[in-house]
């Protein structure tokens, strides 16, 4: 089955009414989205691994919006999902100072619409909860949601909306970094699909091993999850930066949605809006 590539159409025209800013703070990047109702007006990205003050965060984000035709005063509320605790004080302080709102933080006590039915729900990363909410609300259950991030996560959501099982593996970039950092003679390479697995040089050999190895890992994990859950008609939804090249190669992924996490934040906001 050819995977459906769901890319949200960004619309920079429309009313000047209030909007919400959704923020996904991951280990590598901070991704921001602006929603006007259910319409995604724009997406933006900044690196996580830079130490910033609250003013730097606030000024950077407000200028980013202004450069793209959006006024910070149009932002009525902010919701944040973060797996990086050490940036949260400065980041939330910047939001409060420059947007004059108290941001909603995805965590304990937040309504999500799904049941986190694992041994220790508090250990579940906010980003995974957000992805699970979006996959279930947008595509229905049962569903396996795969996020190809710094780590690659596979979460199983049942037909009644319970997140019951998970698999976590090193992300493809982590694997790639280990390959060239822990070996003296292997170079740093671009992660991409090589023309063939029959590589003729070192760079192509590394690309073939990383890419096709990761495709094989994805296919096997999905196969095992389907077999052991024994759920009928279970869908597989993927997201994350490198998820697109993996989903293009394999037929085990039914839907690729680049904005799944942002959509999940919007949905959770709607559950909790004041």
Task: Give structural attributes.
about 270 residues, alpha/beta, Nucleotidyltransferase, domain 5, 2 domains, 7-stranded mixed sheet, 7 helices
E-strand count: 12
The CATH architecture of the largest domain can be named as 2-Layer Sandwich
CATH topology of the largest domain: Nucleotidyltransferase, domain 5
Our count of helices gives: 7
SSE pattern: EEEEHEHEEHEEEHHEHEH
Class from helix and strand fractions? alpha/beta
Q: Mind summarizing the main beta sheet?
A: 7 strands, mixed
The low-pLDDT segments are: 7-16
User: Helix amount, in percent?
Assistant: 25-40%
What do you see in this structure?
Helix content is 36%, strand content 25%. The protein is α/β, with parallel strands linked by helices and 274 residues long. It has 2 domains: 4-108 and 266-272, Nucleotidyltransferase, domain 5 (2-Layer Sandwich), CATH 3.30.420; 115-259, ATPase, nucleotide binding domain (Nucleotidyltransferase, domain 5, 2-Layer Sandwich). The strands form 2 sheets. The protein has a 7-stranded mixed beta sheet, with helices on both faces. Strands 4-3-2-5-6 form a 5-stranded mixed beta sheet, with helices on both faces. A hairpin with a 2-residue loop joins strand 3 (29-36) and strand 4. Helix 4 runs antiparallel to helix 5 (202-229). The longest helix has 28 residues, at 202-229. The protein is globular. It starts with a strand and ends with a helix. The model is unreliable at 7-16 (pLDDT under 50).
Sum this structure up briefly.
With 274 residues, the protein is α/β, with parallel strands linked by helices. Helices cover 36% and strands 25% of the residues.
């Amino acid at each position: 089955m050819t995977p459906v590539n769901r890319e949200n159409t960004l619309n920079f025209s429309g009313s000047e009414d209030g909007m919400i800013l959704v923020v996904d703070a991951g280990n590598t990047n901070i991704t921001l989205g602006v929603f006007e109702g259910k319409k995604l007006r724009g997406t933006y990205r900044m690196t996580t691994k830079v130490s910033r003050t609250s003013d730097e965060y606030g000024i950077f984000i407000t200028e980013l919006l202004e450069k793209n035709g959006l006024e910070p005063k149009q932002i009525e509320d902010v919701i944040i999902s973060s797996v990086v605790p050490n940036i949260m004080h400065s980041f939330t302080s910047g939001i409060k100072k420059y947007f004059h709102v108290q941001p909603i933080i995805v965590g304990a006590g937040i309504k999500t619409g799904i049941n986190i039915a694992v041994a220790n729900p508090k250990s579940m990363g906010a980003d995974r909860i957000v992805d699970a909410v979006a996959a279930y609300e947008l595509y229905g259950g049962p569903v396996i949601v795969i996020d190809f991030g710094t780590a690659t996560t596979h979460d199983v959501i049942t037909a009644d909306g319970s997140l019951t099982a998970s698999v976590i593996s090193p992300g493809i970039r982590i694997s790639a970094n280990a390959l060239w950092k822990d070996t003296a003679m292997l170079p740093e390479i671009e992660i991409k699909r090589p023309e063939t697995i029959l590589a003729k040089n070192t760079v192509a050999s590394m690309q073939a091993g990383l890419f096709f190895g990761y495709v094989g890992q994805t296919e096997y994990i999905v196969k095992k999850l389907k077999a052991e859950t024994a759920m009928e008609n279970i869908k597989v939804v993927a997201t994350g930066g490198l998820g697109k090249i993996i989903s293009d190669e394999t037929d085990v992924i039914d839907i690729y949605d680049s904005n799944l996490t942002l959509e999940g934040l919007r949905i959770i906001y709607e559950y909790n809006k004041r």
